[in-house]
Amino acid sequence: MGVSAPANAYERIVSTTGNASAVIAQLGLSDKLVAVDTTSTTPAEIMDVLPKIGYRRALSAEGILSMNPDLLILAPDAGPPNVIEQLNASNLNTITIADEKSLDGVIKDIELVAKTLKAEKAAQPMIEKIRADEQTIKKTQQSYDRKPKVAFFMDVLPRLLKASNRFRWNLWPARTSMSLLSPPTAVMPKTKP
User: Fold this and answer.
1) Which CATH number goes with the domain that contains 115?
2) Which of 20, 89, 133, 184 is placed for a possible disulfide with 73 were both Cys, Cβ 3.0 to 4.6 Å?
3) 168: alpha, beta or left, given left = phi > 0 and alpha = psi -120 to 50?
4) Rounded-to-integer distance, Cα 51 and Cα 75, Å
5) Which pLDDT tens digit goes with each residue over 37-49?
6) CB 52: neighbour CB atoms within 10 A?
7) Domain limits for position 164
8) pTM of the entire predicted model
9) Which of 49, 88, 57, 53 is nearest to 67 (CA)?
């Protein structure tokens, strides 16, 4: 699996992951998306009108290939495995995001998508905003009298990308999750022992 065509040739992208779809939209390249999976929900005004290829773990090679894509973006858990084998055998250009549940993981996925689409410059403000928010949150965390151990968060990536507010629950270690939210005080107010 690998990207071999020049990025400017990618005019028909199929994304099997909501994170990559949201990044593509934030990069201003949503017009290149020809179909997305059902986890691609934000921004709603873009994703709601695109054809759906099914859920990322229940894909159909025929459905994807019928969209005549020149690039397929896969989630690491995309499947079923026999469908991924069929797609690989079709010689379709593919990339697989890592989908790591960490701030660095989110940034790596943004960088991979941006590099593949030759949109690194457009991705820089996104990455800089995420890093600036991380520093703000770290400073806020240092002022806590008692450190949180676990926290629930909704819509982590869409908030980062200023997308819509479709609900997704995530349970991550607080030190990782806190670095993804803005503003931090809205979720983890300062508490006294």
Assistant:
1) 3.40.50.1980
2) 20
3) beta
4) 18
5) 999 999 999 999 9
6) 14
7) 124-186
8) 0.72
9) 53
